Inverse folding.
């Protein structure tokens, strides 16, 4: 089996998705938040492209709604894109359905649906993703949500961390993208937060909330058994 | 001034080109070969997308023709895509015009023409590129030709080498792509050839000719004063 990495959803037309497992990753913060939501007991997640669809799912199907644009909570929704929104004892989410719309992550997911299987990856559930890929025994493609279609450091470094975990079983050397991502991960690993703070767009998330989110999203294997998997139009825990 | 790197021509729609200087790079081998051709005395270079256009320029305008597809010389043309084709004393190229069609490099060039200025970069002329960018004093974008639209290691590492040279004068930290490319360059620098030979597509170029080309294309500043610049439909030496 081969592991490859696509650094931007805009490059997806260059990849054959059929028969592959796709791992969608948007570390800051869509996939980290979705993993956290399922870990907190959310029953199913509807990722949608537009704020209007998100609001409609809230109105018509009783979904909890979460929406973010350009890194900020969108007004008029229950939650923004912070994982901490799902960890507040004052607002239990157990058994709820969630509609979520984010800038980059949702789009990456929607564009990956031609694959045999689609899961969400984050540092929080790295072990779950690696275990699923080993068990599936198929070629895998990490799809980085990126930042407005451009390369972004944290998603790519996650791809490298996954390649490192899977190197014993997967071919992670026949793709230049996987090679490069693994090298970046090897540089980042000793101090992941400091490494990623070199990124200007990460530093831009410098509000107190965003800074807490950032630290949280870098915890490796906090939810090591939680795997959001795409089934019939929604994400559920595998 | 800011230096950014675009890892694939497919991502160009995400970048504003107007008012920028674009550096097109296809280390193996289009831009290395074009630099060598101009260094050897070729007067002007017409990069074309199709083999038919290349042949027509040979027939109708007396151009020397060079063409490659999937890493191999295309049949029926004077030359393939090897820089050594321009260094053969038995076939002097001084003053000739050249029509060249290559898989990835020509396409990257054609897609970059909305920029204020377009030049060709290679390890062979790194100093010339850096000097031109300093002198222009504009934002710059390195456009990696990549491999069929996908990320490729040697073009990206070149981008990192350029970022390293320009770090004193340019902002090379506000783009994640430039950060990552610079880190890759720092890893590659101690033994550039060994580093790039990790790449499966580089290893695939394992014929004797390709291996000689590979070593040649990694010579830094062999042609430190040669700068192919786009002027009125052709590349000329600046």
């Amino acid at each position: 089996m081969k592991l490859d990495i696509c650094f931007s959803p805009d490059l997806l037309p260059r990849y054959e998705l059929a028969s592959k497992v796709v791992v969608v990753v948007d570390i800051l913060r869509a996939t980290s938040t979705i993993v956290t939501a399922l870990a907190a007991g959310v029953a199913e997640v509807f990722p949608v492209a537009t704020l209007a669809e998100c609001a409609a799912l809230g109105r018509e199907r009783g979904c909890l709604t979460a929406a973010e644009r350009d890194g900020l909570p969108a007004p008029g929704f229950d939650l923004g894109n912070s994982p901490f929104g799902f960890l507040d004892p004052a607002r239990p989410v157990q058994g709820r359905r969630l509609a979520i719309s984010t800038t980059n992550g949702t789009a990456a997911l929607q564009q990956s649906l031609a694959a045999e299987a689609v899961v969400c990856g984050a540092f929080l559930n790295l072990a779950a993703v690696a275990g699923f890929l080993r068990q599936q025994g198929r070629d895998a493609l990490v799809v980085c949500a990126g930042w407005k279609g451009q390369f972004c450091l944290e998603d790519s470094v996650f791809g490298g961390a996954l390649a490192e975990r899977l190197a014993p079983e997967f071919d992670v050397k026949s793709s230049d993208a996987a090679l490069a991502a693994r090298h970046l991960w090897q540089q980042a690993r000793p101090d992941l937060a400091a490494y990623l703070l070199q990124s200007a767009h990460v530093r831009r998330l410098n509000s107190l909330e965003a800074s807490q989110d950032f630290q949280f999203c870098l915890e490796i294997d906090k939810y090591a058994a939680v795997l959001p998997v795409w089934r019939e139009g929604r994400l559920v825990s595998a």
